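To illustrate the input format used throughout this study, we show a single complete record. The first block contains the structure-token representation of the backbone; no residue identities are included at this stage. The design step must infer an amino acid for every position from geometry alone.
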């Protein structure tokens, strides 16, 4: 078997493998429905937890600032007892009033944060309460789907082993070239020649190229640059 024949066989095997993998990726409606419900619930719980984490972070920040402002208020109140004149007294009270207002705003922010967090936690707990049953239904449906893929999985594994076996007999240079074209050309590296044209891009194969193919030489399509394969009669 020539290297071109091996590459064609490899292409055929990989095409069959891709089809098996495509079929395995198609979710039956019986599983797709519970999968949508499961993913939606998981995303909702993640959203709620993210909001709770953000509120907790903000609460820590505000608590820190509140503590600083309360200490500052104590400082100003202590300084009030040491003022020497009416001007200093008025300035001290101005600082105290501003700090008290800031403390009140921070306390209101903490209260609002606690109320929002409590509401979100209630929603999250309700979601988690029903998640165990949803997880069980999801796992059962997923296992049934995977079990139904038994034949396809075996076929896919057999095809992978066959592809590896073929590749082991192909020179590294050709194998690398094959996979480069395979990645660049929609997973078709080798195209059959039929009716004197490339089956992939319909470019006409010149007589000289056809003669090279008949001799088993490795030739690229002049249109799409894929490796051309011409089935030759066996002797």
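Output of the design step:
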């Amino acid at each position: 078997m020539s290297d071109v024949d091996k590459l064609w066989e490899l292409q055929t095997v990989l095409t069959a493998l891709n089809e098996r993998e495509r079929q395995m990726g198609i979710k039956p409606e019986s599983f797709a429905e519970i999968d949508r419900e499961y993913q939606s619930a998981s995303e909702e719980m993640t959203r709620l937890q993210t909001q709770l984490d953000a509120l907790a972070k903000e609460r820590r920040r505000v608590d820190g600032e509140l503590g600083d402002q309360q200490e500052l208020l104590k400082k100003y109140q202590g300084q009030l007892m040491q003022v020497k004149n009416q001007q200093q007294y008025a300035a001290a009270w101005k600082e105290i009033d501003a700090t008290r207002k800031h403390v009140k705003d921070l306390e209101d922010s903490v209260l609002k944060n606690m109320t929002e967090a409590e509401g979100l936690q209630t929603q999250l707990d309700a979601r988690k309460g029903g998640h165990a049953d949803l997880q069980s239904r999801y796992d059962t449906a997923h296992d049934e789907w995977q079990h139904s893929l038994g034949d396809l999985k075996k076929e896919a594994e057999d095809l992978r082993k066959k592809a590896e076996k073929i590749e082991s007999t192909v020179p590294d240079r050709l194998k690398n070239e094959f996979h480069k074209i395979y990645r660049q050309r929609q997973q078709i590296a080798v195209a059959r020649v039929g009716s004197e044209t490339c089956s992939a891009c319909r470019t006409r194969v010149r007589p000289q190229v056809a003669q090279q193919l008949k001799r088993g030489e490795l030739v690229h399509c002049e249109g799409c640059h894929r490796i051309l394969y011409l089935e030759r009669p066996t002797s």
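Structural context for interpreting the output: Helices lie at 3-25, 29-80, 86-148, 150-167, 172-184, 207-214. The beta strands are 190-194, 197-198, 227-229.
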